[in-house]
Amino acid sequence: MSEPIEIPADAERTEITAFVVASTDAVWQLFTTPAGLAEWWWPQFDDAQYEVDLQEGGMYRFRTATGGFGVQGRYLQLDERKRIVQTWDWLGGGEELQGEEQLVIIELRETGDGTLVHVTQTGPLDELDDLRDGWQDTLTRLEEHFDD
């Protein structure tokens, strides 16, 4: 693998951590496959669609017409069951891009009891609280997915 991509020290960012009672293998599948994402990402939207081309340089797109938004990007680095580095572009209701490309790093670390999920996302300073709230909501659903 090439040198790991890191977020520049001076970049505006938000970070959030969650603990999932599951193996990194199980969590990786939920982050990297359309069927896995459909189980927890936006379950509140019946029309949510997930497209994933899981390879470095491959694209992903998650969208919902009911919610009126989506996100798409490219996978920049993949370290299976450990780390995903991807770009992040918001889509509006008409699927037009909503802003500048952001960077997301998702790190998975297996512990004795499950997997620690750490997400870092760059973004404009005035959007960081909303990004953090969105990730908190999303990762809470991931944690609850394994509570059954």
Give your account of this protein's structure.
It is a single chain. The protein is 22% helix and 37% strand. It is built from three helices and seven strands, in the order E-H-H-E-E-E-E-E-E-H. The chain has helices at residues 24-32, 34-38, 128-145; strands spanning 13-20, 49-52, 59-64, 69-79, 83-91, 102-110, 115-122. A hairpin with a 4-residue loop joins strand 6 and strand 7. With 148 residues, the protein is of the alpha+beta class. It has a seven-stranded antiparallel sheet with strand order 1-7-6-5-4-3-2. InterPro entries: ASHA1/2-like_C, START-like_dom_sf.
Order of helices and strands: EHHEEEEEEH
The beta-strand count equals 7
- Considering DSSP H and I runs of 4 or more, what fraction of the residues is helical? 10-25%
The overall pLDDT, averaged over residues, is 92
Shape: globular
List keywords for this structure.
148 residues; alpha+beta; 7-stranded antiparallel β-sheet; 7 strands
Question: What's the structural blueprint in terms of helices and strands?
Answer:
Elements: E1 13-20, H1 24-32, H2 34-38, E2 49-52, E3 59-64, E4 69-79, E5 83-91, E6 102-110, E7 115-122, H3 128-145
Antiparallel strand pairs: 1-7, 2-3, 3-4, 4-5, 5-6, 6-7
Brief characterization of the structure:
Belongs to the AHA1 family. The protein is an alpha+beta fold and 148 residues long.
